[in-house]
Amino acid sequence: MELLSSHGGFTQNQLTLWKYPSMVKTAELTGHTSRVLFMAQSPDGCTVASAGPDETLRLWDVFGDPKVAKPAPKAVREPFAHLNHIRCAHLNHIR
Fold first, then answer.
1. What is the pTM assigned to this prediction?
2. Which residues are CB-neighbours of 54 under 8 A, at least 6 positions away?
3. Is 37 among the domain residues?
4. 33 Cβ contact list (under 8 Å, min separation 6)
5. C or N terminus of the chain, fewer CB within 10 Å?
């Protein structure tokens, strides 16, 4: 597992990739000319966007290709098919 960080005081305005949980530095990503103010990860978890006061938005392919998604199960059109079971209540008739 890996962790990506940025800090306002780094001299090269870099992002740093760490091996988790040992916290060994594995890479430094440079390119910003001012400190990094914001980072966000893409929904697939592979790409990170960073932005700073140097008026640049940088995209980093940090975590590799996304895992191959399993095909979605076929849609079932039967009513209540998504339920495991349905409880039936039996009513006693009053005579």
1. 0.63
2. 13, 32, 33, 34
3. yes
4. 13, 54, 56
5. C
CA 14 – CA 19 distance, rounded (Å): 16
How many independent structural domains does the chain possess? 1
Is residue 29 within 8 A of residue 60, CB to CB? The reply is yes
Residues constituting the chain: 95
Q: Are 50 and 39 within 8 A, CB to CB?
A: yes
**Integer Cα distance of 38 and 10 in angstroms:** 14
Q: Which domain holds residue 7?
A: 2-61
Which structure tokens are listed for 86? 């349905």
Q: What is the pLDDT of residues 18-69, one digit of tens each?
A: 999 999 999 999 999 999 999 999 998 899 999 989 899 999 998 877 665 5
